[in-house]
Each structure stands twice: as C-alpha cells, then as structure tokens.
Amino acid sequence: MPATAVVTITAGGVLNVLSTPVIRGLIQTLEHLASNEDINCVVLRGSGSRAFIAGADIKEMAGLDAESGRTFISGLRDLCNAIRHFPVPVIVRLEGHTLGGGLELAMAGDLRIAADNAVVGMPEVKVGIPSVIHAAMMPSQIGTTRASWMLLTGENISALQARDWGLISECVPQDQLDARIEAVAHAFSQIGRSVLRQQKRLLRRWETMTLDAAIENSVAEFGEAFNTGEPQHHMNAFLSKKAKGKSP
Known about the structure:
With 248 residues, the protein is of the alpha/beta class. It has 11 helices and 9 strands.
C-alpha cells in the first residue's frame, strides 16, 4: 500500500522560522524521500499550532549583506523548488500564521489545506525587503490585482479570504484539520503510483509550455500511461464493480 510521508518543521522555534540550518535540513529530508517509490503523498506541516511558518529568520537576515543575502535566498529558492518538483503531491498544512517565505513555500506545494482561523501574508516590504523567488507565482495563482495588494501593502488576510482568492485549496474548522488532511492523503494512496507521478510531472511541464504544445505533448503522455498497466487494472476493476452492481 502506498504510504504518506509527514514532514514536520522543527528547530525553527515556536513559530517555525526558516533559518539556514532549518532550510538545509528540510532539503536533505525531501531529497531522501524523493527516492522512495512507495510514497504517494507528502504532508508538510509546522510543529505546534501557532504557525506553519512565520517567515524567514529575521535575526539571521538582519546581518546579511548583498552577497550573503543572495546565498540565503538561494537556499530558500532551492527548498521551494524541492517542494514544487517533488515527484508526488505535497499537501501543505496551514495553522496559525503563514507569512513571507512560509507562504512562498506553501505556494510551491500542490494542495494547501488550512484551519479556517489561520492567517497568511507577505509582509516583507514592512522590513525593507521585497517578496521574491516563489512570490513570482502569486499573480498567476490569484491574479495581478490581488497579488499587487498583498505584495505592496504587506497586509495579512484570513485563510477564508485566501481560499476565496484561490491561494488556499480548502479551509476547515481547526479541530477537523488533521482529519481532513488524512482523508485527502488516504485518497492519494488509492491512486496508482505511476499515474500520480505522471500527472504532477505534466502540471509542472505545462507551466512552461504554450497551450498548443502542452496539448500535443499530453497525447503522447496518454499513450505512455498504458505501458504501466495501471489503466488496465483500474478500469477493469471499475467495470467489474459496475457489473456486479447490475447483477440480480
């Protein structure tokens, strides 16, 4: 049975801030998990309930110069890319505050499921730095008008508003958060390993292709799916179940 891997951010304090050691540790963990063919889903979460990630480590950033700043943000870029290009779906669990680099990391995931009392924001301009790297995904995810408001004002919004804007996949009551994520993760375990990886690979590829090229490429990918045996297995199981349901 395919498994779900749960990655919990630790060593970042009660607000799970992203320092260089935390970033490096998460990258190493994700690289290790990426080679495990038995995993069909990853759940990324913070420790505690106060925050998923309340941003990058301001104490560390306050001592940066131009060169070390580029080094620091390159590490965070690599972490976001490790999530974005992870071979199977990544569910990001949002509770409490998700700010700055934490929201960038969340946007790199595939599904964002939040407690309905959670808060998200991109407050970097308020501490003298622009929102960068995967903040570039925000205009395409929520539209330029909403992205401009979040990135230029630095104001937080509720998880419910973020859901309505398309930034969060789903909001549930806080006491139902873990049960809902477990249910979604379980559903992934019922899907074939190969097709899940194929679909995620296509999603990333389509982001850099014209629509016509993506459509043509998907024709070949559709054919390749039948080489895995998964379509035959799942379709025949569906037909068998349907036939039994019609029997007297």
